[in-house]
Amino acid sequence: MAISKDTLKAMIRDFHGFELSDSEMDLIAPELDAYLSELEKLRELDLSKVMSSRLIKADEGGQADG
Amino acid sequence: MANQDLLKLTISEIAPMIRTGEVSPVKLTEAALAKADRLQPTLNSFITILRDQAMDQAREQEVAIARGEYLGPLQGIPIGIKDNIATGGIRTTVGTKVLSDNVPEEDAEVVRRCKEAGAIILGKENLEEFAAGATSNNPHYGPVHNPWALEHIPGGSSGGGGANVATGVTFASLGTDLGGSVRLPGTFCGVVGLKQTYGRVSQRGLLVTSFNGDHIGPMTRSVSDSALVLQALAGYDPLDPSTVPVPVPDYSAALERNLQGMKMGIPSNYFFEMVDSEVESAVRLAIEALQELGVETREVSLPSMEYSGALRFASMSDSVVTHEPYIQANREDYGPDTLYRTLAGQFVLGRDYSKALKVQRIIQEEHARVLQEVDFLVTPTAPVPAPRIDAKYITLDGAEHRVRGPGSGIISRFTSPENATGLPAITVPCGFSKMGLPIGVQFIGRAFDESTLFRVAQGYEAVSPSRGRWPAVANQE
Fold first, then answer.
1. Measured in whole angstroms, how far is the alpha carbon of residue B347 from the centre of its chain?
2. Per-residue pLDDT band at A64 (split at 50, 70, 90)
3. Distance between CA B121 and CA B135 in Å, rounded?
């Protein structure tokens, strides 16, 4: 999935983010590429039925607290 | 015993000598400070050495012991503290120019506990800028050097601590681990690094970090020392809601029991993919050694690890929020690796953040299921031995991967998932590459069951090919 630099810059500017020059956009590109690539992997994964998260409970391990 | 030899003992070995008065905390601290001064130009492992304070603490502890006020095995022991952990009245830079004059008013809870146990704080240790990376190539305070090969990284972000423990400057160092930052210096410097269960140790006083998955943990020269330090650190902190009010067992009691009949899980996917052949061989030999000690082997599958890369969405967003106030006022004082990696976080959508949390939950469930079938998991700690300080890329499976800055993450590939599960994980040295660089094996256990990890890690440590080895620089006069 490709998003143009201008779109990304405009999104951030409109949402009170940090302004970035074209050359700075090039510097962050590898991080964004990794993000988009991982996002692509998730496309086939059904996340709709995942249970709510919670704190780890002690009785998952060896020392339950009563 | 000569000072150099005293500094090469473990806490377990020297603590009884301090208790009986055979070893003086003052003389031990003087020796450790002298060694710190001697090696600082070579390793650059400290940002601040606390000479006067350390000597004052040592004198206090020596007097207390003479009065019969013995506090336990950390009393009179020189340790180091990573410079992103608050020390009251002492500069705490977090490895950044932005906080170069930052002096916290209070000690972090872990520092308070170490002082209460009588430990001597030798100094504040060098780290990656803002603890945000795996190299400890700090753009403001200089790179930390790996004691086994000075042109290589010590791992990060707690690299100063790893280098100090490996050379006998400190007996233990406290690091912080948000993606492997205790375990990676552990493996690259050839020492033991522990990330205990999330919630076991207070994070109060850990500066400029994510609110999701950071841990303060010890680096030590032995597994039994790791157990001793965790004993001092562990416990509920009512002022840190991330800690969990569960009993803290006697960790040392779990040690020196045989491993017969225990079950280890060897992941059939992810954890042995994209790994250097020398690392894989050393870890496979460690598995064979455990089998010879009577541990049963089961292959286990963690299929959702395929999606573990999504966990970075949450950390990207967390990072930009954490840094927001600092970047707004001091953008020009950031190093480029941290700045541009952080700024990328502002592009993560809320929807994708939510997906990352769901992936985190799936991976947690999968680990919990597998750890019902086995007592612990075995993996490499890092996919490669320590890269060179000047390396921008490493090559694995024919592909180039960034070592630091935007798009990096390969080095923490096997450690960062356990920050998301919150499960305890420990690295133990398991040999060396042909170049003489240390390799580590990682054991992952059940939540709040560090005792089992210590038992396994110590059982393996006793037969590890790394035992008794020191880097040459540790003997530098």
1. 30
2. very low
3. 24
For A12-45, the pLDDT digits (tens) are 777 778 888 989 999 999 999 999 999 999 988 9
CA-based nearest distance A52→chain B, Å: 8
- For A6, A15, B313, B430, B473, the CA distances from A10, given in Å and listed in that order, are 6, 9, 21, 51, 53
Query: Nearest residue on chain B to A7, judged by CA atoms?
Result: B347
Low-confidence ranges of chain B (pLDDT < 70): none
In chain A, what residues touch B348 (CB-CB under 8 Å)? 35
Q: For residue A9, give how far its alpha carbon lies from the nearest alpha carbon of chain B (Å).
A: 9
Of A27, A32, A50, the CB nearest to B362: A50
Q: What are the two backbone dihedrals, phi and then psi, of residue B219, each rounded to the nearest 5 degrees?
A: -110, 135
Q: Please provide the DSSP assignment of B103-155 as one string.
A: --SS--HHHHHHHHTT-EEEEEEP-SGGG-SSS-EETTTEE--BTTBTTB---
Distance set, CA B42 to CA B91, B296, B459 (Å): 23, 44, 34
> Could you tell me the residue ranges of all domains in chain A?
5-43
Structure-token pair, residue B272:
């042995």
Task: Say if A61 is an interface residue toward chain B (CB within 8 Å).
Answer: yes
B219, B175 contact by CB (below 8 A): yes
Structure tokens at B48: 């601040």
Rg (CA), chain B: 21
The reply to whether B157 belongs to the active site is yes
Contact A56 B316 (CB under 8 A): no
What is the pTM (predicted TM-score) of this model?
0.96
Give the CATH fold of the B3-475 domain. Answer: Amidase signature (AS) enzymes (3.90.1300)
Helix A5-14 × helix A22-41 angle, to 10°: 100
Q: Which two tokens stand for residue B162?
A: 């790893």
Determine contact, residues B151/B104, Cβ cutoff 8 Å: no
User: How many cross-chain Cβ pairs, A to B, lie less than 8 Å apart?
Assistant: 123
Q: Does A20 touch chain B (CB under 8 A)?
A: yes
B313: region left, alpha or beta (phi > 0 left; psi from -120 to 50 alpha): alpha
CB-CB contact of B156 with B405 (8 Å)? no
Partner-chain contact B309 A47, CB within 8 Å: no
Residue type at A61? G
Say how many residues make up chain B.
477
- The mean predicted confidence, pLDDT, of chain B is 96
Domain ranges for chain B, please list them.
3-475
Cβ pair A30:B312 closer than 8 A: no
Over residues B322-346, the pLDDT tens digits come to: 999 999 999 999 999 999 999 999 9
